Structures are given as structure tokens and as C-alpha cells.
Amino acid sequence: MEQHLDTQVQREIKKFSHEELKAITNNFSRKIGRGGFGIVYHGYLENQTEVAVKTCTLESTQANKQFLAEVRSLSLVHHKNLVTLVGYCKDGVNLAVVYEYLPRGSLFDHLTGKNSSFSLNWRMRLNIVLEAAQALDYLHTGCGMVHRDVKSSNILLGQNFEAKVSDLGLAKMFSADANSIITLSGTPGYMDPEYQLTFTLNEKSDVYSFGVILMEIVTGEPPILTARESIHIVKFIKQKLATGSIDDVVDSRFEGQYDMNSVWKVVELAMICTRDESANRPTMADVVMHLKDCVQIEEHRQRGKLQPSEKSYMNMSSISTSHSMSVSFAPISR
């Protein structure tokens, strides 16, 4: 498999030596993050193009397999909202992936305040998750691939805050083996509960994880809230919605600059995405369609057709009782 991958990848992307990576990264002097198996460094190619170099420092069979999986996955997929693979290094024990550099960091950094220089408004958050959803839809429908580690820290942002999904190291093809039993992988807080119980993987596991991200962009909170006691964001929002109010969960950094209709729609979509049974979740194609509606609503507000103070409420019974796979949002009465 390894020999086949090397032959395949060499036809499409550049293979770097370890010495070349040392030159690109100025001897690995600037750390910009940490991946699952090593540190990520900033670097410049000879033409001064900025790149990120993700190293693999664990000399284990699992690390080697995941490295090879990421190289293979990135070399086979091409979408404007997926991180572009520039090259890779497999030089003895030195393993690394070289990909485009995204200067704005991750969605998670902005939501948690780690990147405090700029606060993402509601419209920007909607655009980011829409673009990320389009990338996942492409993986599912165009590539027959499950990402397996969808989370806000794996949504990277370009200079103009365009979103690109990264870290395909855990990705697995499911077109011919959709429900195979595999090793449990993912990140706590984002993992599909059905997958954790059954070890059965399909694309709806990504949908669950994406539903958690939708809750993050509404609340500005991480998947596991620890202010008083540890509580998962899905349970937290369900408790708030049980009172019929959503105001308490909306990120205060918005300062009221949003249309409540679009917020409700995103919350409802998030609740459907995070249903316990995967069969009752929408597809990523459905998610893309409804996020486009949410973006359009917010665009109308920003053009002055809706006032930020206007609030409306939808019947939440469809969230808690409906088990239909159809995802539809009726017009919200004012």
C-alpha cells in the first residue's frame, strides 16, 4: 500500500526531503499549532508562498498509517473549501505533510477567544459553516469519504475568512464498505453517540459532529461547557429550549446584530443533526441547502429589510418529536 501511495502521490504533488523542510521552515523555528501526531510549523517555499508543515514525531505503526492516510486523502480530493496539499516528506523516519497556510487560524480559536483580535459576527459565522458544509458534502457525495474528525478546530480560515476543512488523517472511504466495523476515532465532544456504541461508521457521524459546530457558532461555547459542571452543548441547548427561550444561549458578542429567524433555523438544524439515531439525521446536502436559506435571511437583515431588534419564535415541537428525514422549515410568523 505504501509503495502504491508513493507512486500515486508523486504524480500529483511534490515530495520534499527532510533537508528541504528544514530550509522551508528556517530549521523548524516557528510553531503555529499541534496536530494529533506532531507539531505544525510555518514556512516559505522558494517562491515565498506561505505553507504549514505538519510533522509526525511518533514512531509508531498507527502514526505512520494515519500519516499515509492524510497524504492519500488530500492528494485525491480537490475542493475550494478543503485545505490544499502542497507536498509531503517521507524521508526515513521523518514524516511531514506540507499544505497551504491559512493565516486566520481556526474557527475554534475565534469562538473561544484565543484569537481575540477579531470577533466573528453572525453573518461571518454563517458563511464559514456553509462553506465547511459544502466541503463535507463533497467528501460524502463526490468522494464517498467520511472525514471522521469534524470539529471547529479543523475548520481553518483564510485571509478573507474563507473556510477550509483540514486534517483528513482519519478519513475513510465508505462507498464500498459504509457500515464496516472500524477502530473508534474522533474527538470527545464531537463524536457521534451511535458510533461510540456500535463502532459502525457512516457519513451521518460527520453530520452529528457538524451539528455540534452549529451549536458552537450560536453560543460561542465549546462542546463541553465547564462553567459550573461539565455538560455537553447538546444537553445545554435542549435545557434552554425546554423553557421556550433562546436568548440565553446566543453569543453576547453579537450585540443583537442578527435576525432571530436565522438563529432559530440554525438551532433547529443543529438539533436535527445531533439526533441520537443516525437514520433520523439529514444529509450534508440538506444541511447546505438550509444554511443557504439562513445566509439569505441574514443578508436581507443587513440590507435593512429586517431590524436586529425584531424577534420571532418558532414551534420547537418538530425538534423534539419529529423523526422524519425531511428537513423543512415553515415560515415563521411575526
Automatic annotation (TrEMBL):
Gene3D superfamilies: Phosphorylase Kinase, domain 1 (3.30.200.20), Transferase(Phosphotransferase) domain 1 (1.10.510.10)
InterPro entries: Kinase-like_dom_sf, Prot_kinase_dom, Protein_kinase_ATP_BS, Ser-Thr/Tyr_kinase_cat_dom, Ser/Thr_kinase_AS
Keyword annotations from UniProtKB, A to Z: ATP-binding, Kinase, Nucleotide-binding, Serine/threonine-protein kinase, Transferase
One Pfam family in the UniProt entry: PK_Tyr_Ser-Thr
Domain of life: Eukaryota
Annotated SMART domains: S_TKc (SM00220)
SUPFAM superfamilies named among the record's database cross-references: Protein kinase-like (PK-like) (SSF56112)
Residue ranges constituting the Protein kinase domain according to the UniProt record: 26-293
Source lineage: Eukaryota, Viridiplantae, Streptophyta, Embryophyta, Tracheophyta
Keyword Transferase: yes
One MF annotation (Gene Ontology) recorded for this entry: ATP binding
Amino-acid positions noted as binding ATP in the UniProt annotation, renumbered to this chain: 54
Protein name: Protein kinase domain-containing protein
Protein species of origin: Rhynchospora breviuscula
The family this protein is said to belong to: Belongs to the protein kinase superfamily.
rRNA-binding as UniProt keyword: no
